[in-house]
Amino acid sequence: MLEIKNLHARIADSGIEIIRGLNLTVKAGEVAAIMGPNGSGKSTLSYILAGRDDYEVTEGEILYNGESILEMDPAERAAKGIFLAFQYPMEIPGVATMEFLKVAMNSQRKARGEEPLKIPDFLKRVKEAAASLDMDINMLKRPVNVGFSGGEKKRAEILQMKLLEPQLCVLDETDSGLDIDALKIVSDGVNALRSPDRAVVVITHYQRLLDHIVPDTVHVLYKGQVIKSGDKSLALELEENGYAGIIEEAA
Amino acid sequence: MNMRAEIQRTPAEAALVDAFGERLSLLPGDGAIMVKRDDAIEQVKAGLPTRRVESWHYTDLRRLLANVPAFDASVKAKSVAPLIEGSTVLSLANGVSQAVSSIEGVTLQRLADKLTDGSYAAALVTYGTDDAIGAINTAFVADGYFVDIEAGVQLDKPVELQNLQAGGQSHVRLPVRVGAGAKATIVERQTGEGAGLVSSVSQLLVGDDAEVLWLIVQDQPETATHLAQFKAELGKNAKLTLFVMNAGGKLVRQEVIVKASGEGADFKLRGVNLLAGDSHVDVTMVLDHAVPHTSSTEVVRNVVTGRAKGVFQGRINVHQIAQKTDARMACNTLLLSDDGEFSTKPELEIFADDVACGHGATVTEIDHNHLFYLMARGIDEKSARGLLIRAFLAEVIEELEDESVVDPLEELLSNWFATHG
């Protein structure tokens, strides 16, 4: 579903190269964990997948379902089914959450040539998704993420993911800022989305999240490259021994 | 004869002076009023204010007022439905009032009658020597409505004062008195067609414990010159919310001159200025906190597109005796084009020592992070920008809470963006 080939990317403003020849393949149905020390390019990778224009791809290719996405803007990528759950979800004053959800869902439907959702159908979906994440529906009357705690923001991201039903879910440090109960709820939310035709990329610093969202593959990112791939045991090994050994081994 | 002044006069100044000579015999008023008109035209003859006059620094009227159309009695102003459904409408068609129907608890008069019999003479005043709008208006004002809401009357329907123009010149005044403990919503609608010159002066007295919501909605055509002044004085525990929306006009100056004269008075100014094309829109406020224990907040939000230029000047004078004044002012601008401009000038003059006063101003572009976030959810760039711009403005409008007011204002926003977005 996702094929990243020899990807090089830099910060558009400063020209500093962050991703330096990254290769990664994620198949449909797979849950892939991306781990790595701070500054290894994990979040950059997630932004590049979503199409943030602060980064410039200088070399290589990103294929999604066999099609290059490099020329697509973030909205086009989202409509094709790519979803990024942000590490730091944005607060947007003045934009009501419900309105935002409705516009987002209907924009994607429109891009796919589907009819807009009828209001009762939309409300039913939102209520069900909120209930499954143990979210108070009244929170959604507020502007997008405004006044939400860190944990509430993360839940709101997963709520959006549930409603938008993407094919490729990229979770950027979704566990940060979550207490253990919230972590469980959010993980259950992600696990419920696991399906043979959907892929999940979990970017995380810690093994903790991977106890709940058990990955099929684990990839270690260091200095903008995948330096080692393995199964879930690789994550446990990292938890035990840290990154130093693997970095040395790769060098 | 002052030859030098004659030679230096701009075409616009000359046109105003000439028009006064031609109109004089048609202007209503007794001796006292005619003297005031003469004084006023002398002020115009002395020259329109330039950027060297501090209060006109960002709006050089002498340079910007390029076109003064002739009076045109043949044009007919189109009527419009009131902004808020069910309002009592008092309309002025090209500066001329209609026969008035009565409202219970309210005295309505055509201003032409009050000018003719001279009973309006005392109120026909200008605001200092730099008051070009007051001077032009005093010289030419021929009509308007006088609205007197009796003490204790709670108007259940808004009153809409419509100033409809269709080109040529129109000069009107809208004096409104709201008695003690009364409550009213007044809509001042400034709209029309054609390249007209409009001067409009509103004078509001808010009695003790009275509560007024006053909405100025200006959406003149892109060719019109709109010179407007809103003056208000607030009694004890009086509450005034003034909402100003500018969504049109080529050259617009809206002055807001408010005096909190009674303890416990509260003034709120909320403004939305939508600037497009090569328009020049100026909102200038002078607010006096003249007694202790009064409060005010001002929030002005602007969106600038095209080559438009915007101005907000906010001057707050806190008098020496006005202890415990609480005044907060904010002006935020979204600059959506490289060729647009916005100038903000907050001025606080504080002579009391126990007050809480503050101001803030920002000029920004659309937040890049917000845009990315919305687009990452599948919302195309144009729609995402639209959502963010409207959110920026909606915060001010939604504060009015009452749906019957908020909905039509948001509809005006939508219409503006449909044309200029």
From TrEMBL, chain A:
Pfam family name, one: ABC_tran
Residues in coiled coil: none
Claim: Zinc-finger is one of the keywords in the record: no
GO molecular function: ATP binding
UniProt-listed Gene3D superfamilies: P-loop containing nucleotide triphosphate hydrolases (3.40.50.300)
CDD domains: ABC_FeS_Assembly
Protein known as: Fe-S cluster assembly ATP-binding protein
InterPro entries: AAA+_ATPase, ABC_transporter-like_ATP-bd, FeS-cluster_ATPase_SufC, P-loop_NTPase
UniProtKB/TrEMBL annotation, chain B:
Domain SUF system FeS cluster assembly SufBD core residue range list: 168-392
Matching Pfam families: SUFBD_core
TM region(s), chain numbering: none
NCBIfam families: sufD
Name of the featured protein: Fe-S cluster assembly protein SufD
Classification of source organism: Bacteria, Pseudomonadati, Pseudomonadota, Alphaproteobacteria, Hyphomicrobiales
